[in-house]
Amino acid sequence: MSTYETLAKTVHIDGKNRLISYGDALEHIGTGRSAFVFRIQSSGKAIKIFFPAYSHIAKEEAAIYKILQDIPYYPAIYESGLNYIVMDYIEGLTLFERLSKGKIITKAHIKEIDHALSLAAERGLNPSDIHLRNIFLTDTDEIMIIDVARFRQMKDCRQWMNLKKAYDQLYTKCFFPKKVSSHFLNILAFLYKKGWIPSYRA
Ligand SMILES: Nc1ncnc2c1ncn2[C@@H]1O[C@H](COP(=O)(O)OP(=O)(O)OP(=O)(O)O)[C@@H](O)[C@H]1O
Ligand SMILES: [Mg+2]
Predict the structure, then answer these.
(1) Shortest CA distance to 147 belongs to which of 11, 33, 14?
(2) Ligand 1 atom nearest to CA at 50
(3) pLDDT of 127-163, one tens digit each?
(4) Which residues, in sequence order, are CB contacts of 71 under 8 Å at separation 6+?
(5) Using CA atoms in the order 170, 94, 141, 105, what is the torsion angle rounded to 10 degrees?
(6) Is 147 a catalytic residue?
(7) Quick one: which of 100, 114, 124, 138 has the fewest CB in 10 Å?
(8) Cα gap 145→56, rounded to integer Å
(9) Whose CA is nearest to atom 18 of ligand 1?
(10) Is the whole model's pTM more than 0.90, yes or no?
(11) What are φ and ψ of residue 40, in 5° steps?
């Protein structure tokens, strides 16, 4: 059994997708709709452990990261197993965290995210599920994109187009607050998913 597999086995998730316990070598750094993410202590790596009902996504996400491997905007991956993937730990803040802390997101950042996504498209992928928690700005001001599991889906995903539109039509305007509480951002995300924000159809 590999070291990473041993680490993955220290994580216990119950049938309701609640994190019950995890080993001392791990630090819990993120929770998504399909997985818990941990920093592996004394290493620059992170391990994403999928909820039991989503463990099959590990293989798909690892395969997509392999297609993106040499593109610097995506974390390198080191190993994948039945329910986990091991990748670079990203030191920085997601765009969601930046907005809630009032840290400015520039036009140059948006342009670079576009470029990062176009490089994935050039490899035959269809970047999907591009939301604020899946885009990082590192401490050295570089863009990193994570959570690529849906990049091979065929269906048209308008999330990034809508985020760019909101950036141009709202965020860049002086009336728009540059610091937005996470509570408000979550409400906006909820309304967006429901299709209840006119002219921002999902
Ligand atoms: N490599 C990483 N380095 C640092 N933090 C990370 C890393 N990967 C994930 N995270 C953190 O963990 C959170 C959840 O990870 P991720 O988006 O991969 O999970 P998910 O279940 O696929 O999410 P979603 O709800 O978007 O489908 C991220 O939003 C981010 O805050
Ligand atoms: Mg995510």
Answers:
(1) 33
(2) 21
(3) 999 999 999 999 999 999 999 999 999 999 999 999 9
(4) 116, 119, 120
(5) 10
(6) no
(7) 124
(8) 21
(9) 147
(10) yes
(11) -85, 120
In contact, 40 and 47? CB cutoff 8 Å:
yes
Q: Which is catalytic among the residues 129, 139, 156, 168?
A: 129
Atom in ligand 1 nearest the alpha carbon of residue 147: 18
Q: Which of 12, 47, 1 is nearest to 27 (CA)?
A: 47
CA-to-CA distance for 58 and 50, rounded, in angstroms?
7
Which range marks the domain in which residue 125 is found? Answer: 92-194
Q: Name the residue with the closest Cα to ligand 1, atom 11.
A: 30
Q: Are residues 30 and 60 in the same domain?
A: yes
* The pLDDT of residue 63 is above 90: yes
32 CA to middle of ligand 1, Å? Answer: 6
CA pair distance 154, 156, nearest whole angstrom: 6
**Is residue 2 scored above 80 in pLDDT?**
no
Ligand 1 atom closest to Cα of residue 33: 25
Q: Same structural domain for residues 80 and 133?
A: no
d(CA 50, CA 85): 9
Residue 92 clears pLDDT 80, i.e. is over it: yes
